[in-house]
Every structure is written in C-alpha cells, then in structure tokens.
C-alpha cells in the first residue's frame, strides 16, 4: 500500500526518515519510467521501450519478461543491475501537484514504506522549521527529474505523432521456453531513416532524436533479462 503524506512542518515536525537500504518495494515492477537525462547510463544497462497509456506513450525500462516481476531485484531486495532508474532512487518520497489549482509541486512521503519514524533517522525539518539539508537535496533531485520527465514526454509525443512508434513483438527464449512480452512499442527504424527533412528537423528541436536512438541501441539489452 501507498499512503502519501505531504511533507510539511505540521505533518512532519517530529518525524524522521530512514535512508533507502534496498529495493524490495520495486520487486514486482515490470516497467520503470525513464527520463532523457538518464539515457546516457540507462542505454548501456537496460532494455528501453515505449508503452501505451490511456492517450499517450511513455518511455520505460523493461525490467522483466513477465508481469509482476523485476529481475533486477534479488531475494534480499538488492539491485543487481549496473544502473538503477531515477524513479526508484528517491523512495519513499514522491512528488504531487498541489490541490489548490496552482502549479506548485509538493514533496510527499509514503507513510507505509517503513522508512518514516519518530525516532532515529534524518529529521524532515530543523529547529527553524526548514527542510534539513538531506531532505532538501532529495526534493531538488526529484524536481529535476520531474522537469526532465515533461521534456521527455514531449519528445515521446513527437515521435508518436510522426508515426515512428511501432509494436515490438518481443519474444525471448529462456531455456526451452519462448516467452512473449506484449504491449511494447519500439522505434520504426526504417521510417526514422526515411523521415522527410522538414519533419526530421522538427524532431531535432526536441529530445526526440536522442530518445529514438537510445531506444534502438538498448534493444540488445534484452539478453540481460534472459
């Protein structure tokens, strides 16, 4: 369960948080959201794909060949890959839009994570009611990811609008069993290389081209899952 509590002096004045010691919370997560800022590292370590949401596509890392599993988290909750997606590294913190109609972003914490305590740990606030330095650093990291997420989504939308996303009928052979992973999309390499010059220039104005090439280059990383 996830129970988000806005981090405020009223809610967290006498509370502390414990550092992340493992990734057991992500053990059942097949996809991890990826932003463009982490492509340089993710492209070498994870297979990247696109998945369709209600009315859009999202760039993700594929963490397992089957739903409800994450092959990068072992039985002790330790991460086994060479790169951990940014969306996991800020646990138990989350960002949420304020409900007052403004564009303000609130720092929240998952009270059910087991990492919020009233005793030992890092206080959320100091004696003056300001975020402690470690808490502020987490908030700034998450804000940078949030901002990059929107830029990344614009790039993915541009690729989709250009007709460059195609179904990826991924099949992987594990031992004697062939596993089909459904619901994935990839860059249509042929269409990308034959994109008209004007449309190509439009893609170049966004992060669309780095996202496209990173996805193509990362597909060989499926072998890591096998």
Descriptive overview:
With 226 residues, this protein is of the alpha+beta class. The chain is 32% helix and 23% strand. It is built from eight helices and 13 strands. It has helices at residues 9-12, 39-45, 86-89, 133-161, 189-193, 197-204, 208-218, 222-225; strands at 4-6, 16-17, 31-33, 48-52, 57-62, 93-97, 105-110, 116-117, 122-123, 165-167, 170-174, 177-181, 184-187. A five-stranded antiparallel beta sheet has the order 3-5-4-13-10. Helix 2 (39-45) runs parallel beside helix 7 (208-218). The protein is globular. The two termini are 30 Å apart. The model has no long low-confidence stretch (mean pLDDT 93).
Compact overview of the structure:
This protein has helices spanning 9-12, 39-45, 86-89, 133-161, 189-193, 197-204, 208-218, 222-225; strands spanning 4-6, 16-17, 31-33, 48-52, 57-62, 93-97, 105-110, 116-117, 122-123, 165-167, 170-174, 177-181, 184-187. The protein is an alpha+beta fold.
Strand order of the largest sheet: 3-5-4-13-10
Shape: globular
What percentage of residues falls in helices of 4 or more residues? 25-40%
User: Would you tell me the structural class of the helices and strands?
Assistant: alpha+beta
Residue share in β-strands: 15-25%
Note poorly predicted spans. Answer: none
Q: On the 0-100 scale, what is the average pLDDT?
A: 93
Q: Supply the number of helical segments.
A: 8
Order of helices and strands: EHEEHEEHEEEEHEEEEHHHH
Q: How can the largest sheet be summarized? A: 5 strands, antiparallel
This entry's quaternary arrangement is single chain
β-strand number: 13
What is the radius of gyration?
20 Å
Give the N-to-C terminal Cα separation.
30 Å
């Amino acid at each position: 369960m996830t129970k988000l509590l806005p981090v405020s002096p009223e809610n967290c004045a006498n509370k502390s948080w414990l550092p992340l010691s493992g990734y057991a919370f992500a053990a059942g997560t097949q996809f991890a959201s990826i932003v463009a800022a982490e492509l340089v590292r993710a492209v070498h370590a994870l297979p990247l794909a696109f998945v369709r949401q209600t009315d859009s596509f999202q760039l993700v890392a594929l963490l397992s060949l089957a739903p409800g599993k994450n092959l990068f988290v072992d039985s002790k909750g330790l991460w086994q890959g060479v790169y951990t997606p940014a969306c996991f590294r800020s646990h138990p913190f989350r960002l949420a839009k304020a409900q007052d109609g403004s564009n303000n972003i609130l720092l929240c914490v998952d009270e059910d994570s087991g990492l919020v305590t009233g005793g030992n740990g890092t206080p959320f606030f100091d004696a003056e009611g300001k975020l402690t330095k470690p808490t502020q650093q987490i908030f700034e990291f998450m804000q940078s990811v949030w901002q990059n997420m929107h830029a990344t989504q614009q790039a993915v939308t541009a690729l989709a609008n250009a007709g460059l996303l195609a179904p990826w009928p991924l099949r992987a052979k594990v031992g004697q069993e062939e596993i089909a992973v459904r619901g994935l999309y990839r860059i249509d390499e042929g269409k990308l290389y034959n994109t008209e010059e004007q449309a190509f220039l439009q893609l170049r104005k966004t992060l669309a081209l780095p996202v496209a090439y990173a996805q193509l280059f990362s597909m060989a990383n499926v072998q890591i899952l096998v």
